[in-house]
Amino acid sequence: MSEKQNKPIKERLKQIENKLDSLTNTKWAKNLRITSGVFWNLFLLSIIFGITLTIFAASVGAGYFASLVAKEPLRSKDEMRSTIFSYEETSEIYAGDVYIGPVSADITRKEIKLEDVSPYVIDAVFATEDEYFETHEGVVPKAIFRGLFQDVTNADSQTGGSTLTQQLIKLQILTNEVSYERKAKEILLAMRLEHFMDKHEILEAYLNIIPYGRNSNGDNIAGIEAAAEGIFDLKAKDLNLAQSAYIAGIPQAPFAYTPFYNQNQGIKEDENLKPGINRMKTVLFRMKETGYITESEYNEAITYDIKKDFRKAPLRTNERYPYLTQEIQNRTVDVLAKVLAEKDGIDPDRLDNEGKLKDKYIILARREMTSGGYRIYSTIDLKLYNHFQKIKDEYKLYGPTFTKKAKDKETGEEIEVPYPVQVGSMAIENSTGRILSFIGGRDGHQDNWNFATQEFRHNGSSIKPLLVFGPAVELGVIGAGSPVADVWFQTSKYGPGADGGPYSPKNFITSEQMGVIPARQALASSQNVATQRLYEQIIDKNPAQYLTKMGFTNTAVGGIADALGTVETSVEENTNAFTTFANGGKFIDAYMIDRIEDMEGNIVYQHEVEPVDVFSPQTAYIITDMLRDVLTNRRGTAQVMKQNLNFNVDLAAKTGTTQSYGDVWLVGYNPNITLGVWLGYKYRNDKLSEGQNTYGPPSNRVNKLFANLMNGINEVRPEILKAETKFKVPEGVVTRSMCGISGLAPSAECSAAGLVTSDLFNANVFVPTKPDDSLTSSSYVQMNGKKYRALPSTPREFVVSKGGIGVTQDYIDWILRPFGGNPEYLFPNNSSFSQNVISESNFNADDAAPAAVSLTLTDKKITWAASASKDVIGYYVYSGDKKIATIHDGASYSHSIGPGSYSVKAVDITGKLSAASNIVKLEKEEPPEEKPEKPEKPKDPPKDEDPEKPEKPGKPEKPGKPGKPEDPPEDEDPPGTDPPEDEE
């Protein structure tokens, strides 16, 4: 622009300036200037003050925030990620590879990957919980200030300000405490976590840990997968829009919005379902407003009948399998306790001996099991297990159910509580120790006590092969057929008996003494007396060590009574011990937990089989062969079981009964499986002997139930039982001949007497080599019903000889060692040797003549009572001075006589005679005189007939004189005076 063009403008500006100067010089202008200056200064001051105040407030706030988080440790990336991902997951139980269900836990949770979650769920969570999730850095400032303002002003509307990241921090790292300190830490950690985890990981973790109320069983649930299954019986990936919205709305108020009551009380009433349904509609509205769903999708979902989708409560795992679930959980805790101890550098074996240490790790292990997300694989064959329960439930011969009075826990009223006969059973695979199946009791819902694994009872005679016969064979004391003495005895060596006197055991049949019998017979018919005599011969060798090796918890030895089953044991222990014989003498501890895997599939625990040498293979087979007789011997105690089997199997077994039928047992095995069964009442004072008329003898009941279960194994799992397999004879088991009464090698005398038998021996420790020297010539007399060795002075007519075969006193002392006993019962009538050999006692005779007897005459027969003397072997009958009869002791004390004078003298074992008895006389009888018969008068002959003349009667014959009665020949005994040859 030129200078000429600028001049008018400059002049115009000069004019304006002059005008302004004239105005400012006026009074009102001066006042306006002063006022505006003041306001300007005040404005500047307020700005400065506001900025200063803001900076101050920010500084104070920052300082306060810093003070709130000052004690929060600086967490590393690995530490924070580990803590976030360490959310609890419910462990699961498997029978083999078959899923049973979750363990019992305070909260149910199942881990899931984000890609397995329905997109509807993710959209619903974003719309209701964190619409800025994909863009924020862990916190949303305006949401924080909004929440802070609402808190300060105590506003009615509390919209909240936590992002998903903040909620994750609160649930996994911090607590639910309501405080500014917790909130400050939450903000700080949320921002930090966003640097350590991507959005995908944060969202996945959130969906796995957030609480979702209760499932249809009333159990607490967490995580979207547990919620989908527990509420709708669906997988999270299969949820529709309405279902997704319903679940997504629950976390705001889990127990208000959940559709189910707690403690398995079922679904809520319609009125109480409304809050959850209304919340679902709110979620759907927000999804529409935020653009996640369309208007049409919203309209369709808002009218959806969500109530029809709610799941009906299924049976819990512990309701379907009460005994099984509890047993697996208990064993898992024991296993994990040792795993955790070992991780801490502690010898796991210390837990078996240190109670406090064990208690600590049991608590830790139980917590780990319930929330560690483990997959617990058991050895149980579920098909067989279910079949066992069916057989148990259908069996009708347990016995009567007793009732006892008790107080109702809820009402406090007195009620009658039933107590049925209980049952415990277990099936174990011999070669591995795997517990295939078990029966824990009659009703796990009524009484969750496991009678197969937790109940310890006396095992009666089932202990005999384990504690007595097995060790005796192993130690070379006997072979299978070696003789043992089943003869009563008394001893005070191990303390008094039940009556305070000497201990005096009896057999099951209390009046029975079988005498000398083979060991296999003593075991087959379970003779108590013979077993205790054998046990006394090995007790100093500590036979209880074998029980310890076979896993018995209680092995304290109190004396020979232990041979009858005073040791308390469980069905599992007792059954497991018998697998030792099936395994060739090796004990393999039974187990139920095969392996445990963590959430990633890593093996945390794997069971390892560790065989323990107990018996030699030879001993194991010999005992097995002896136990076969329990099923087949005519006196075998498991014959009823054999009769009820519906298939052929090579089976060995042993029964057991405790006093007054408090318990009955039967354990049997084939080469592959061992099965044990126990029956008894919960309270030991209740006895199975009740109800025998209705249910049969208790021993028969356990025999039949065992057979049913064994039939069941063969029906359901024949490939495991393998009934066709037989026990194999190991090298070293030999058959040898022996003299049956001594167990020594046969001598000529033994062979001549027909006493040679043969049976199995363990050639490595004992075979008979020394010739038998137990026999001698023998004769005896019977006195007071007992046999005694005849003396040289004993009258020969009273002596009984059985081919001259007897036993020596040395043999008697040896076979009855160390307790002694009455040798006359060594070969009673029920003994297999009684036809070949006898045994007698020596009688200490006195020098006195026996006491006389008194005669009575009745109907041509004299009778008398036994002499008062104890050494009388018989009586002589005299007619005048002539001996006419010999009466043996035990025969009828009478003799038929004819006319004459008679007396009787008692005879003792030394040959001394008593004084003569009183004399009785029988007079002769005169026969009556016979009169001649008169002749009959002849009848008149009929007319026209010539009558015959009657004959003249002849003279009557004179009656003859009666003849003298003939005397019996001297020394000839009347019939019936001698006892039968075999009568004792």
Fold blueprint:
Layout: H1 3-24, H2 27-69, H3 77-84, E1 92-95, E2 98-102, E3 107-109, H4 119-129, H5 141-152, H6 164-172, H7 180-196, H8 199-209, E4 211-214, E5 220-222, H9 224-232, H10 241-249, H11 254-257, H12 270-289, H13 295-302, H14 317-320, H15 322-343, H16 355-371, E6 375-378, H17 382-394, E7 402-407, E8 414-419, E9 421-429, E10 435-439, E11 457-458, H18 464-474, E12 483-486, E13 491-496, E14 502-503, E15 515-518, H19 519-524, H20 528-538, H21 544-549, E16 568-569, H22 571-582, E17 586-587, E18 593-597, E19 603-606, E20 612-613, H23 617-632, H24 639-644, E21 652-657, E22 663-669, E23 673-681, H25 692-695, H26 698-716, H27 718-721, E24 733-739, H28 748-752, E25 756-762, E26 775-776, E27 780-783, E28 786-789, E29 806-807, H29 809-815, E30 855-858, E31 861-864, E32 872-879, E33 882-888, E34 894-896, E35 900-908, E36 920-922
Parallel strand pairs: 1-6, 3-5
Antiparallel strand pairs: 1-2, 4-5, 6-18, 7-8, 9-10, 9-23, 11-16, 12-15, 13-14, 17-20, 18-19, 21-22, 22-23, 24-25, 26-29, 27-28, 30-31, 31-34, 32-33, 32-35, 35-36
Helix pairs in contact: 4-10, 4-12, 6-7, 6-8, 10-12, 12-13, 15-16, 17-26, 18-20, 18-23
Describe the structure.
35% of the residues lie in helices and 17% in strands. The chain has 984 residues and is α+β, with helices and mostly antiparallel strands. The strands form 13 sheets. Strands 2-1-6-18-19 form a five-stranded mixed β-sheet, with helices on one face. The chain has a five-stranded antiparallel β-sheet with strand order 10-9-23-22-21, sandwiched between helices. A hairpin with a 5-residue loop joins β4 and β5. α4 (119-129) crosses α10 (241-249) and α18 (464-474) packs across α20 (528-538). The protein is elongated, with a radius of gyration of 52 Å. Residues 940-984 have low confidence and may be disordered.
